[in-house]
Specification:
Elements lengths: L1 E5 L3 H14 L4 E5 L2 H10 L4 E5 L7 H11 L4 E6 L5 H5 L5 E4 L4 H8 L13 E4 L5 E4 L2 E2 L5 H12 L5 E2 H9 L6 H17 L6 E4 L2 E4 L5 E2 H7 L2 H6 L12 H15 L1
Parallel strand pairs: 1-2, 1-3, 3-4, 4-5, 6-12
Antiparallel strand pairs: 6-7, 7-8, 9-11, 10-11
């Protein structure tokens, strides 16, 4: 997803960009203090979503949105402002959303999940099977990892469904918290990334200092389809979930509980 943020106050711009980045860590995000620079950027670059401050000195966010839409008709505009009274005028532009400052992650997540013009997401060609034995496939062929722990690490990140998991937690899951495995853990992480990179899919891994996660919107996974309630996901479940890993039992219990409710 390609996002721009426009606000004439540098501190607010920085906060808003960081907030959006936490919600969409894989997005390309550009920030602008100057509205005219933002307009020039939209003229020459594809943009999916624009977060625009309404009250700016050189041009209002509403007028800026009108100009941007001349060059990018499918642009999703989300206004961010401290002024409620401009809502009607903003909506007359068929804006995608309207956020009252200060923006927070819940507001951003809500607006990005319900865009007026949904953004097509490029999914990884990998298929991750979580039901039954955990397995990873590329073009119907199993992906081979150097270490079994690399595969288990990937399985746990899939299980956590996008949550950034601290290294200490991963050590506990993989080796019961034994610190002697810290060096091996580094090799396992590297093997996981290197293996996915061989298939051009390492962008599904997210990382920050001391933590890892996965970009769920880029992964084809039967469990993720089940979570969405799609027929494909529901039909893929036959009572087993990552059965080779003991730590997966808690998730399996939750799946069983919800499946029982659906069947009643």
């Amino acid at each position: 997803m390609r996002i721009i943020v426009v606000d004439d106050e540098s501190v607010i711009l920085g906060r808003e960009m960081e907030c959006i980045r936490r919600v969409e860590p894989t997005a390309k995000i550009e920030g602008f203090l100057n509205a005219m620079q933002a307009l020039r950027y939209v003229k020459s670059n594809p943009v999916d979503v624009a977060f625009l401050d309404v009250m700016m000195p050189e041009i209002s966010g509403i007028d800026l949105a009108k100009e941007m839409k001349r060059f990018s008709p499918n642009l999703n505009v989300i206004f961010a402002t401290a002024f409620n009274h401009l809502y009607k005028e903003a909506m007359e532009l068929h804006a995608s959303g309207y956020i009252v400052k200060p923006i927070d992650e819940d507001q951003v997540r809500r607006e990005l999940s319900d865009l007026r013009r949904p953004v097509a997401v490029e999914r990884s060609p990998l298929f991750v099977r979580a039901f039954g034995d955990f397995e990873v496939f590329y073009e119907n062929q199993p992906v081979m990892f150097r270490y079994m722990k690399s595969k288990e690490l990937f399985a746990y990140l899939i299980d956590r469904h996008g949550t950034m998991v601290e290294s200490d937690t991963l050590l506990t899951v993989l080796w019961g918290g034994e610190t002697d495995y810290s060096n091996f853990f580094y090799q396992v992480r590297k093997d996981l990334r290197d293996t996915l990179r061989q298939y051009g899919c390492d962008d599904i891994l997210l990382s920050r200092r001391g933590a890892m996660g996965v970009a769920t919107d880029k992964i084809n996974c039967d469990y993720y389809e089940w979570l969405k309630g799609t027929p494909e996901g529901i039909n893929a479940y036959h009572g087993q979930y990552m059965r080779q890993y003991d730590w997966a039992e808690m998730t399996w219990v939750g799946i069983e509980g919800k499946t029982t409710i659906w069947e009643e």
